[in-house]
Design goal:
With 350 residues, this protein is of the alpha+beta class. The chain contains 9 helices and 7 strands, in the order H-H-H-H-H-H-E-H-E-E-H-E-E-H-E-E.
Length: 350
């Protein structure tokens, strides 16, 4: 509110001060430096010239330029320049002829040579200067307005894409989680109850902490721990799960549901009901630098090609990273030297 009020006063005051300075330097300072008594008709003419130049400035900037140059009507704009320049010359000549200003100025300056010219070079120069500045100012304002509009559209597009991506991730997560709990009810009722309690805590996080663009790092990591504990309950003894997450973290803001797809992808593709497997999840932090490393065994045919994107979850997360953290993250996904699928995310939180 204060910024808007400041801008509403700032620009009119800036225009007023600029015109005051220019009028003094260009119209009044030089005559005053002559140290002679200048006739009143001269000062009246300079005041009239100032008013006409100001009118030209704002008519050109507010009406002519938007209707000619900005619509590629260059011929019409050139015609406007010619007519305006000629009109200013006619007004200058008529005023001079009607008031005898040139004769009076010659007498005041003790100039014996009468300069009765039809062309007024001073008015011609001032007219071109004012129209040039006015045209540049109008085009700059149009460029700024277009840039702001483009930025607003990009922001709205980004918010819409983020909302869509989050909505895609959440059902994807719940579908897998509910299937896991359903399978767990046939094995251990107590564990399934614990899993439902953990899921309810995770749902509260999703309902109350993911509506905003950012959430606290502690909440996001707590959500990730709940998910891992839920998957640990479901996993068989064939899974070796190695998790390293610091108990205390430096509190920063982070986009919600950002790390889950990487961990979820490891459990989805790195666990088998009969074969042994390993999943390594390592989270580390150094000041604002956060690093997540997830590695899992790949259960696939030797000739099968592992997709680099890791599925829709990782595709969406990569898109979110591009939108929220441009130039602030590094993401590497693929098969490492051990033949395991590995995801390494390095993120600058501030």
């Amino acid at each position: 509110m204060k910024d808007a009020r400041f801008k509403s006063y700032f620009y009119p005051i800036l225009h007023l001060l600029t015109w005051a300075l220019l009028s003094y330097l260009l119209l009044f300072y030089i005559p005053l430096s002559w140290h002679v008594k200048v006739p009143m008709v001269f000062w009246i003419w300079h005041c009239l010239a100032l008013v006409m130049l100001m009118a030209l400035f704002y008519i050109n900037a507010g009406i002519i330029v938007p209707k000619t140059i900005l619509k590629n009507r260059i011929t019409a704009f050139v015609l406007w320049l010619l007519v305006t320049t000629l009109l200013m010359q006619v007004i200058a000549y008529l005023y001079n002829a009607g008031t005898g200003m040139r004769r009076l100025m010659s007498e005041a300056l003790h100039d014996t040579v009468r300069r009765e010219h039809l062309f007024d070079s001073f008015i011609f120069t001032m007219t071109l200067i004012v129209l040039s500045i006015s045209t540049s100012w109008a085009m700059l304002k149009n460029w700024q307005r277009a840039a702001q509009h483009h930025q607003q559209l990009e922001q709205e597009k980004t918010e819409a894409e983020l909302a869509m991506l989050k909505n895609q991730i959440n059902p994807h997560f719940f579908f897998n989680t509910l299937n896991s709990i359903y399978s767990l009810t046939y094995v251990n009722v107590e564990d399934s109850r614990k899993a439902l309690h953990t899921l309810s805590r995770m749902m509260r996080y999703l309902l109350y902490s993911t509506d905003e663009e950012k959430t606290s790092l502690s909440k996001e990591v707590g959500f990730l721990k709940d998910y891992i504990s839920l998957m640990r309950l479901r996993a068989s003894d064939n899974l070796k799960l190695v998790v390293s997450i610091p108990e205390k973290l430096n509190e920063y803001e982070i986009a919600p549901m950002l790390m889950l797809p990487f961990v979820e992808n490891a459990f989805k593709h790195g666990v088998d009901a009969t074969a042994s497997s390993e999943i390594h999840i390592v989270l580390s932090q150094e000041n604002q630098h956060l690093e997540l490393d997830v590695e899992n065994y790949i259960f696939a045919q030797p000739e099968a090609k592992v997709k680099e994107d890791g599925g829709i979850g990782l595709l969406n997360t990569r898109r979110r990273l591009n939108l929220i953290y441009p130039d602030k993250y590094r993401l590497h996904t693929g098969v490492n030297n051990h033949g395991n699928y590995e995801v390494n995310l390095q993120l600058e939180l501030a």
